[in-house]
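Why does this matter for the project? Reviewers at the last site visit asked to see concrete outputs rather than summary tables. In response, this paragraph embeds two records directly. Each consists of the residue sequence and, immediately after it, the corresponding structure tokens. Nothing has been edited or filtered.
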Amino acid sequence: MQSPTFQPRVTSQSKLRVTKILDKASELSGIRITRLAQIRKLPFKILCDVNTALVQESAYGTFTFGPVVDYRKSDKSYVPDSPLRRLKSGKMEKNLNILVGYRKKEGRFFTPSSAGTDQGFQAHLANIFPSVSRRDIRFMSDLLYPISDYSDGDQSGMNRSANALQDLFMGCNVHYLLVFMERSYGYVLDTAWSNREKYLEKILVRGGAVPWGDSTTKRVATWLQAVFLQFGMFATEGANEAKLLPYHENRTVMLGTDDGFMGFVPNSAASRQCRYWTYAPYEVIT
């Protein structure tokens, strides 16, 4: 699983969307729907169409959690809470082998150029959490991710915002998947910025494009692709063959770089801030 990305939603924020969800479900099903209990009984196809419509109407720079996360041949297609909270509480099928990873500094992909200042960062957080108080938005900016922790000159603000958004959207998902799955393995990719996309494309996409003559990228991508294939085909036996270390044994993940396998390193996605995002003390329940 590469970079599992979900956006947490607090109860107060979700309530603002209930009417829109009910209206959209009524429109697409042809049935007047006034309660969420009715939505839970809808076929998967309609739920999926509702989810698609909600995503299309999302604000730029946000990731929409809709009523569908996974396909089930029953009424269980409806998922009642944000994925992050369900992961933290262990509400998933745990008896699986899972290999999950992310790219270092991946938060840059989630961060608008306007988020390099306190004001811009707070404005973006307010866009993500429109029902959260200004006091809590300031807490996220000033205390949870203080800019003083990022002493990189002109890039301090952007690095702070990128780190926060990586935790929020993806990093904490990686962390809790590794912690709560019974047989989990992790990896992190740390490559040159100019090489990031072609590196991942070659690994994950059959026939992925790599420039002619780029022998290093081909060699490294082939190595990691072999790891993924071994794991996917043979699970635990494949993990042993690929020399992956179970996460529960030492809390480390495999490091892949432009030069290939570089050993095992501590999981940087295991952020102390994940606890805050999961328990959502900023949530206002009415």
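We now turn to the second protein, recorded in exactly the same manner.
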Amino acid sequence: MIKFISEKRNIFLAALALLTAVTASRAATGFDIALIKAAQSFPNAVFDYFSLFFTVLGSGEVTGVITTSLAAWLFARGHRKAAFYLLVFFGLSIAIELAMKFSVPQPKVFPEFRRGLKLPVPVYSPFTPFAYPSGHATRSVILTIVFFYMAQLKIAGDQARRAAKAALGIICVLMLVSRVYEGSHWPLDVLGGVCLGSYLAALIIRQFQKDNF
């Protein structure tokens, strides 16, 4: 999977361009509404709790701390270029996300689809007029792919490696679904974040490889 993401990264860039055009045209509003209704058709208190957990976990504050800590770890082990580009592309992801949320005319989720779940801790959310793409999805996919790559290289034993990859994949999928379930984002917002995050993660991995990591 990592090889495909790294070598075929332009596929994700093309998909992002296509999704952005479709989103801006409002041609897929019916698709967004149908999927968000399906995701919210069986509200569950347990998943409410997990949605709140993933909202905090994928926030800029938490993912920023994780990314900075990982960069510090890489720097301490002599992978300075990898650490530098990890921070650069993570920062770039936020800049691109915000720029698109000011330019791609995708309205935020309609009030009737917002579940109004109360966060246990405050999370900063900058004002943007539009919703596309999901920053949570972008950041989560970046970190998931980076940690997936690291697990592939650093975890000894096939069983432990598979377990780590499965855990990363499950956490990421739940994060993505939770954004739609709780009414924070339309499905296309999340898909756009997946494409943006995958493309930037591929660029990060390329720099990791150049730095012999």
